[in-house]
Backbone:
């Protein structure tokens, strides 16, 4: 493993354009479970609560679960070593950006500046009628569903539900990154969610080297991955960061 990490570091050092593509797995060590897999949230909750059509007709019911998942679990989570190393890599000039499928805001909390949130962000809520945005810290989650102060309309978390399109700006910038990249570091993604999974695939088609970090093989591992660093995001990125920052030349 250490040899592979050193190989990855050498590639990153030589690369003019490296970006990271992150999925739910990077936040597991922060205490946020992924949706899929053995300990995934979909074993406990019905994914229907995040289907736009169902949500619009069942606000009250859906909000009970949405509050529990996204505003009780998520709000206590803090960035882990993996988020912190990626932020440090950006600061030191080794990483241009992060394309994340996550909605937990942890990359920003770790200090990353260029983050393309492919699926939006749970820390914001919006009124579907007047478009006003609210920060989750302004909301009293004892009274759900939360309502817009302007028109009393029910607020929706500002991440995409099943059946909604990708935010256009994040979509455009993510694929622009993928086309330019020389290296893409995939962290903690099954690769099952489309169109997000097309981002690293586009990078590969455009000649990028793919480094993947995940304790389990994903749909990327045997298709586009060049260097597979098997392990937990925090542990592997901590080692990679230590090696990269202590051997910068
Ligand atoms: P996923 O839930 O489909 O898969 C998670 C992946 O993480 C798996 O491949 C698993 O092997 C890996 N993993 C588990 N523990 C890990 C660890 N410690 N380090 C590294 N990898 C680890 O995730 P996905 O492919 O990202 O798709 C789910 C979708 O659900 C995402 O698009 C995202 O929008 C959303 N989601 C977000 C969050 C969040 O914001 N933290 C949490 C759950 C789901």
Residues:
């Amino acid at each position: 493993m250490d040899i592979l990490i050193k190989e990855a570091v050498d590639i990153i050092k030589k690369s003019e354009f490296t970006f990271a593509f992150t999925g739910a797995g990077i936040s597991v060590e922060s205490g946020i479970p992924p949706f899929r897999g053995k300990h995934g949230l979909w074993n406990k909750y019905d994914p229907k609560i995040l289907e736009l059509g169902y949500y619009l007709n069942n606000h009250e019911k859906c909000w009970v679960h949405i509050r529990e998942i996204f505003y009780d679990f998520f709000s206590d989570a803090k960035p882990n070593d993996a988020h912190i190393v990626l932020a440090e890599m950006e600061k030191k000039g080794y990483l241009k950006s992060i394309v994340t499928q996550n909605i937990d805001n942890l990359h920003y909390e770790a200090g990353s500046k260029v983050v393309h949130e492919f699926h939006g962000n749970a820390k914001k809520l919006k009124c579907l009628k007047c478009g006003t945005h609210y920060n989750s810290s302004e909301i009293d989650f004892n009274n759900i569903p939360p309502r817009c102060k302007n028109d009393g309309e029910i607020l929706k978390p500002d991440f995409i539900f099943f059946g909604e399109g990708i935010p256009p700006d994040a979509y455009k910038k993510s694929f622009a990154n993928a086309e330019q990249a020389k290296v893409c570091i995939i962290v903690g993604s099954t690769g099952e969610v489309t169109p997000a999974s097309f981002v690293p695939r586009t990078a590969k088609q455009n000649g990028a080297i793919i480094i993947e970090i995940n304790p389990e093989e994903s749909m990327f591992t045997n298709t586009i991955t060049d260097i597979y660093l098997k392990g937990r995001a925090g542990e592997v990125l901590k080692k990679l960061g230590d090696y990269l920052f202590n051997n910068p030349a």
The chain is about 35% helix and 15% strand. The mean pLDDT is 94.
